Amino acid sequence: MDTAPFAEFVARRTELIKHAEPGTTATRALSDLTDEAVSTLAEAAFASSKIRWGLIALGAYGSQRLLPFSDLDLLVVVGSDPRSARDAVQEVLYPLWDAGFEVGHAVRTRKDHVRACAEDIETLTATLTGRHLAGDGRLTGELLASVAASARKRRSPLLKSLAARPRAGSPYDLEPDLKEGAGGQRDIDELTWRTSIALGARAERPGAAAAPEVLTDATRDDLDIAQDLLSAARWHLHRTAGRKRAVLDIETAETAPFGGPALHAALATVHELLLATRGALSPADLLAAPWSPEDLLGTVDVGAVSLPRLETAARRGALETLVPGIANLMTLRRPALSHRFTVGAHSLLATELAIELPSSDALAASVALSADMRLALVAACLTHDAGKIVPGAGHAERGGTVASATALALGGDPSTADAAGALVREHLLLAETASMADIDDEDTVLKVAARISRRGLVGPLYMLTAADSLATGPSSWDAWHASLVRTLVARLDAALANDVDGAGMVEAAEQVRTAALGLVHHDSAVSVLRDAPVRFLMARSASEAAADAQLVADLGPRHSRQQAALRVSGARTPDAYRLAIATYDRTGVFATLAGVIALSGLDILGATAFPSTRDTVLDTFTVVSSTLAEVGPETWNALERHLSAALAGHLDIGVRLGERRRHYPSRLAGRATVETHTDSSFATALRVSAPDRPGLLFDIADEVAAAGFAITRVIARTRDDRAHDTFHIVDADGLAPGDPGALGHLAMRLRERLARI
Amino acid sequence: MKKIEAIIKPHRLDEVKEALAALGVTGMTAFEVKGFGRQKGHTEIYRGSEYTVNFVPKLKLELIVDDELAPKIEQAIVDAARTGKIGDGKVFTYDCEGAVRIRTGERGADAL
User: Fold this and answer.
1) Dihedral sign, Cα of residue A719, residue A721, residue A722, residue A723
2) Cβ-based contacts of A439 with chain B (< 8 Å)
3) Chain B residues within 8 A (CB-CB) of chain A?
4) What was the pLDDT predicted at A123?
5) Residues A737-748: what's their mean pLDDT?
6) Phi then psi dihedrals of residue A289, to 5 deg
7) What ipTM does this complex have?
8) Which of A224, A234, A355, A580 registers the highest number of CB atoms within 10 A of its CB?
């Protein structure tokens, strides 16, 4: 056999693949060129054969859509025993194999092939786009007509089988499968097969016969444009990879001329027309008639099964009056670390996932959503990434405006619109805080609570966060991330409860911090103020905060002689003084300070205690004279002496207080009450109410220390000769103790000790 | 060579990374893990519904380093990951018998 013509074909083919403009024209040109070579090979191979034969191109080759690395699917039809054609068929195939083609082939009689088509739907669909290449045209024509006619007779089960064909992914995948994926080549093929089955004859392209109301002249023009773009993108993929490749990865999509919004529009067009042809969408769904708020909210309520309708409406502009800009977002690519879909498709999926979340998420199920808040949540889900229309950081802030507009368009009132805007502005807050900040730090929780500011927003924000993460990708919302976010949500909810008012606390504290920073001049005091926790600032005026910060800053190094610093100022209560003491944290330090004050002839009317981040404590006491003696410089000198001795371990406060009580016995009667409250994640509250007496605070704090607990905060007040003290305590691990046995034992010991005198 | 494994609180990752970068560590592997030690998980209450976090989310870091550098790295992780509260995590150090950089075939410390 003369191999020169085939060698010339291979050379021309290489040139064509290298230089052709990718698209339908190129795939057809490659197909035509291949036809010449294969036909020539076949004519030569069968020249000396006496059998009746014909050659048919099947599948993509039959449709004249050959890509650089497409398989060549061939059917040799023979009029007699296929074995008689063996040598001739090998003469056709060997040059193709030698040239590197992947060839799928079968040699059958017409009857055998019709039977094969009845038994295997892939053989059938490949034949429905079959095309005569060489040999006996009557033989091939009769076969193709028989197969199509037979398919028409079985159209009902065949169309059902085609409708069950697996279609991976979405036309909005950032890495779409251009062949088998939703909206890909197979979907166009199915439309062609359906047309052929409806006609009972070969169809070259999708036609009205498959679905007259769907495949109109206009939509078929859209399909032609989509086909051209798909062929171009796939040609580019084959050419750059040097092999068969169907998935357009993100890197290629971002750099190739075919990977942008137009490609997603093409995939979506095919996807929508196929669904409408199958009956999964109605022809009316393909129109861009504006939806009403009821249409949108009703469709969203149906759940994820309504996603194709929503996507179609959004892309075709039917939602523009309700969700401004969503049509452009549907094909907008903003690839990030784990995003899977275009911005609009991601937002619609997040909306449906948020609606369905309570069925699979216990925390979401316990969120009580009012109708208004539900509307705000839907508006927020639909628009949470709308700000991505502008590239760069800050999309959450930008999206807030769109969310508010959407909530209003959906029928929400201004407060609902505000809520939707706030949800979008803060939609990254929970996930970022949970994984990047210390959620075991109360200040972290309080500051996030202040940003959210309304308790009613915490639940919806959780649902938006979870749905957004789930829609982003499985790795964004696994048990690891969900656990962190749920813990934060529970703490935020508690921080925004009416009796805590975390948002108000933070606002007040920040005002004090700002004012106090204006009053201090030394860097060390500035640093103390900047690190000061919310509750520390809450309990002080700006001038007190500034002075106390300076006191902490003035402490000498740990273990130096300057282990404590104190400052005395006037208090609001007549004849009372405010005493601030800074010292290093140590076991039982509050008991020590309270005991020293009692030993110095002072009654404690009120006290606050705060640890700082610098391993120091700053406790303040409101004190009055416990005797008729006046308080003066000698009192403070005595206090300083007792303090130094106690901190150096040279003073047995318990013994000395016992002596003092013998000299000044308390005449107040009444029983002490002790309660523990374990509703905070950060510390357990120990509430003690008892008749006042010298050293009462010392007794309580000493008993707390003896039980192995540390005091993180104290609020002590004396009213009508009765002390009402709240100690916030943690265990040795810094956790809020919750063991009823240990807490009950502490309460019992306290009642016993307070009943002794 | 030593293999160092550290279990740390998630929010301390950046601090640990910066501390290790300052010591010249150029690579590590991070895993999102869940577990418990003495902390034993915790219980949270949301609107009256109680749920228990039995396994607490942590990050596990793995890195292979030169023998001489190992103690410094161990200490740097401890310093950077410490918050002073329970659940700060642990650092484990093991002997490492070999390493190969797949791209170049370099072995031992050269592969690090």
Assistant:
1) positive
2) 11
3) 9-11, 14, 32-34, 38-39, 42-49, 51, 53, 55-57, 83-87
4) 97
5) 91
6) -65, 130
7) 0.82
8) A234
Q: Would you say A684 and A730 are in contact if contact means Cβ atoms under 8 Å apart?
A: yes
| Chain B residues within an 8 Å CB radius of A438 | 9, 11, 83
Residue A630: both structure tokens together: 């006046």
pLDDT of residue B111: 87
Residues of B in contact with A487 (CB under 8 A): 42, 44, 53
- Around A319, how many Cα atoms within 13 Å sit in the side-chain half-sphere? 30
CA distance B6 to B26: 16
Tell me the average pLDDT across A277-305.
Answer: 95
Q: Is the model's pLDDT at A213 over the cut of 90?
A: yes
The C-alpha atoms of residue A254 and residue B85 are separated, in whole angstroms, by: 46
Alpha carbon dihedral A557, A561, A565, A568, in 10-degree steps, equals: -170
Q: Residue A231's closest CA among A26, A62, A383?
A: A26
Does A294 lie at the interface with B, CB-CB under 8 angstroms? no
Q: What 3-state DSSP class applies to A104? A: strand
Other Cβ atoms closer than 10 A to A669: 6
pLDDT, block means (10 residues), chain B with 112 residues? 96 95 93 82 74 86 94 96 88 95 90 86
> What pLDDT, in 10s, does the model give residues A656-713?
888 887 777 666 667 889 999 987 878 899 999 998 888 888 999 999 999 999 888 8
Structure tokens at A323: 């969700």
Query: CA of B35: which chain A residue's CA is closest?
Result: A480
The alpha carbons of chain A give a radius of gyration, in whole angstroms, of 40
pTM above 0.90, yes or no: no
Residue A719 burial class via C-beta count within 10 angstroms: exposed 0-12, middle 13-18, buried 19 and up = exposed
Pairing mode, if any, of strands A616-625 and A602-611? Answer: antiparallel
CA distances from A136 to A54, A115, A116, A141, A582 (A): 5, 21, 21, 9, 105
